[in-house]
Design a protein that fits this description.
Blueprint (H helix, E strand, L loop, with lengths): L5 H23 L10 H17 L3 H14 L9 H18 L4
């Protein structure tokens, strides 16, 4: 697959950071502790995803990284952080579909 431009990679990282920020704000606004319902895992997963994408230029590798992050996010069935985790999932899917519409 082709390489992504620096501008595209920057946009991806910006959206990941925005989703992570939204998640942190939501988490902090609740009574949940960091490890409640895998919240620490969710935060770490998105942070590691962004760090890896910072090093990549290949479109397929970035799509794979986004998919792995999606699969590593904890399943949150209920609770105050569910909307933020679902927002993370949605952001990851939107990003990889933008890069590879057939994915």
């Amino acid at each position: 697959m082709p390489e992504v431009t620096p501008a595209t990679r920057s946009e991806i990282l910006s959206e990941l950071n925005s989703a992570r920020h939204h998640f942190i704000v939501t988490r902090d606004a609740t009574e949940a502790t960091e490890d409640y319902m895998g919240l620490e895992l969710a935060d770490t997963t998105l942070s590691e995803c962004a760090a890896e994408i910072e090093k990549l230029t290949d479109q397929a590798q970035i799509v794979d990284t986004l998919r792995r992050a999606y699969n590593q996010l904890p399943v949150v069935s209920d609770g105050p952080a569910r909307p933020a985790v679902e927002d993370m999932r949605s952001t990851l899917v939107d990003l990889w579909k933008r890069l590879d519409p057939e994915a």
